[in-house]
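seq as requested:
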Amino acid sequence: MAEHIILPTHSPHATCPSLHHRFPPHDPPNPTLLPTSILRLFRFVFLIRDPSAAIPSLYRCFLPPLSAMTEDHELDPTELGYREMRILFEHLHPPSSSSGGPPPLLIDADDLLSDPDAVIRALCARLGIAYAPAMLAWEGPEELAFAKSLLDKLAGYHEDALHSTGLRPQPPGERRRRAQKSRGEEDAEWEAKFGAEGAKAIREAVDLCREDYEYLRGFRMGRVLE
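struct tokens:
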């Protein structure tokens, strides 16, 4: 969600003027709307997903029946968030960071779904949180009600998550199979599902995000599990 706190201009001095008087006058600049004093309060954990998987999934939200819930009908490349996530990550990550806070952690969705238990255990260890197997499941009605209350404003975008009951390992080699697909095979698959116009929009968005995704993936925690 970094695109919601970083201006479309990607200015390196973006702190919201209305917040200046609430924080030290010499608060270091940063690329978000939030003062650096606020950013230092958090330990950031980034979750990324291969755009060849993420963007076709997102595109479904602009087509019936989900578009009736999202009330959106067109993929907006400015809202994909990969570039903004990279900008925020580069600001927070040493050695060039001026944020003064702890270094961020980064997880790739493919690593998480390949071995949910190992990745969540590793994340908890890095954060100093006690791990519990219950973190991988959310089957109770109270958890579902809580999730729905948080996602009401994003109706239609998280239906798969809301109808899930936990993190389950994906079939072995899923990322490898996807990576082995040629560009033409991807395009043909998207055209069969979404039509020629949809496939064109998806391809343009995937290409736009690819470089930033690959850069971020180089910092993923999952490397320690390989």
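The CA atoms of residues 56 and 202 lie 6 Å apart.
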